[in-house]
Write a structure and sequence with these properties.
Layout: H1 11-16, H2 18-46, E1 87-93, E2 106-111, E3 119-122, E4 140-148, E5 156-166, H3 170-180, H4 190-193, H5 206-210
Parallel strand pairs: 3-5
Antiparallel strand pairs: 1-2, 1-4, 2-3, 4-5
Domain CSD2: 107-182
Organism: Rhadina sibilatrix
Protein name: DI3L2 exonuclease
C-alpha cells in the first residue's frame, strides 16, 4: 500500500487497447507483491535469532525500494536570479464584487500570458471614465508591472504603465511583447548615431568584400 506504480502509456499500448494496459499494471502489482512477500519471509527466517536486538528492516522503508518506484521531491530554498521582467500585457476590468471595499480602490488586470498571475491595479492608474464605461476598454491592451505578490494572496499587486492600443493590431501587440521581455526599443541616442558612416550613400569597399563571406 505504500508503493505507487507508474505506467507509461505509449503507442504500443494504444494499439493493444486499454485492456492490455490494465493487464500490464495487474502483472506489475502481482510481481511487486510476490517480491515483497519473499523478501519478508527470507528476512523473517534469517532474523529469528536477533529479533530481540532490533526490529529489522521494515517493508515500508523507502530506502529498501528500487529507484523506479520512488518519486523525487524537493523544495525551492533560494532564487538565484529573477528572469522575468515583471511586466505583462493584458486587459483591465472591474471586480465582480461591487460591494467589497477593494472594488472602490482597485481594478483587475488579466494578463494575456496565463503564466503570469492576475493583478490588482489602482483605479487611479486606469482611464478617468473606466468605472463608468468599462466596456469601452474591453479590447484595449495595457502594460502592467508587478510590484508585489504576497504569499497569502492569489493576486499580485501592480501598476498600469501605459495603454498600448487596440488588441489585434500589429504595433500594440509588438510593443507589448518587447516590453514583457525587457527589450529596449527606444530611439537611438545621437552618440550612437554618430558611430554610423556620415558620408552617404555608404558602400562596402571591394577590399572588405574580398575578406568577408557575402550572406546577401
Amino acid at each position: 500500500p505504500d508503493v505507487i506504480i507508474e505506467a507509461q502509456f505509449d503507442d504500443n499500448d494504444a494499439e493493444h487497447g486499454q485492456d492490455h494496459l490494465q493487464d500490464t499494471l495487474t502483472d506489475d502489482i502481482k510481481k511487486l507483491s510476490l517480491d515483497t512477500g519473499e523478501k519478508g519471509k527470507a528476512a523473517g527466517v534469517a532474523g529469528v535469532h536477533r529479533a530481540k536486538q532490533d526490529d529489522g528492516p521494515k517493508v515500508n522503508d523507502p530506502s529498501l525500494l528500487p529507484d523506479e518506484f520512488l518519486q523525487r521531491t524537493a523544495k525551492v530554498v533560494y532564487i538565484l536570479e529573477k528572469k522575468h521582467s515583471r511586466a505583462a500585457t493584458g486587459f483591465i476590468k472591474l471586480l465582480a464584487d461591487r460591494n467589497s471595499e477593494i472594488f472602490k480602490r482597485c481594478a483587475m488586470f488579466s494578463p494575456v500570458d496565463h503564466r503570469v498571475p492576475r493583478v490588482y491595479v489602482p483605479l487611479a492608474d486606469c482611464p478617468p471614465d473606466f468605472v463608468s464605461k468599462p466596456e469601452a476598454y474591453s479590447q484595449t491592451l495595457f502594460i502592467c508591472r508587478i510590484v508585489d505578490w504576497k504569499e497569502d494572496n492569489n493576486f499580485a499587486s501592480g501598476q498600469l504603465c501605459k495603454s498600448l492600443g487596440q488588441a489585434g493590431e500589429i504595433e500594440p501587440e509588438s510593443e507589448g511583447i518587447l516590453t514583457e521581455y525587457g527589450v529596449d526599443f527606444s530611439d537611438f541616442s545621437p552618440e550612437v548615431l554618430e558611430c554610423l558612416p556620415q558620408n552617404l550613400p555608404w558602400v562596402i569597399s571591394p577590399g572588405e568584400l574580398a575578406k568577408r563571406r557575402d550572406l546577401r
